[in-house]
Amino acid sequence: MTSQQQRRDNRRTQREAHNTSYLNPLRWHAAEAHHRLSLYATSVDRHDCYQPAQVLNEPGEIDDKDPAWFAGRGVALVSSVWMVACLFAQMTRTRLDIPFLRLPGQDDTKLTALILKVQVAFAACDVYYATQSSIGTDVILEPEGRLRSYREFCELLSQPDRRVWADPLIWFHLAIAQGERRLNLQRVLDALHELSGFLDDSLAGGASLRARWSSEL
User: Fold this and answer.
1) E strand or H helix at 10, and its extent?
2) Does the keyword Transmembrane apply (predicted)?
3) For residue 124, is it left (φ>0), alpha (ψ between -120 and 50) or beta?
């Protein structure tokens, strides 16, 4: 191998590692959110509701819940909200990081468009873009830059003045658990599927959605 070829290979390896460090978290959270929301959709198709998440009448009722509720009866609903909130965090991060990515051709433009497609799908569910960004930012802990754990997210929701920003996302989950907003939910799932497919291709990491479902078997 010539030194020139070796340098090209090294640059390619560095580029791939760089892209992976930025995009793998988004890929993982997109697959997680798609999987969880698919459980709602499947249950609604079969039973007209997703009973495990039918635990509140409105978001304000969270104010009276203790940790045992979050760890028990409320976990199906609140963990779903947490997963989507983490997705919002990763989408917000990625949109800011796109200038630093080294994607081939027009892939950076396509990635931006696919993230926007997911955001528009949630906006159609009354979880508007500005709210998505706010929820995502609240999930990121600074200066570490890590995302809140489920427990830390529950502690955040226990503060009414902080929880109110997540209320639209909670309302969305309550609605789809009741079998409402079916077309909106399908639009979200389609957008997440498209984003996941693009990330799988970009990272050459296999089909993340299929792998996520297989992990349940």
Assistant:
1) helix 3-47
2) yes
3) alpha
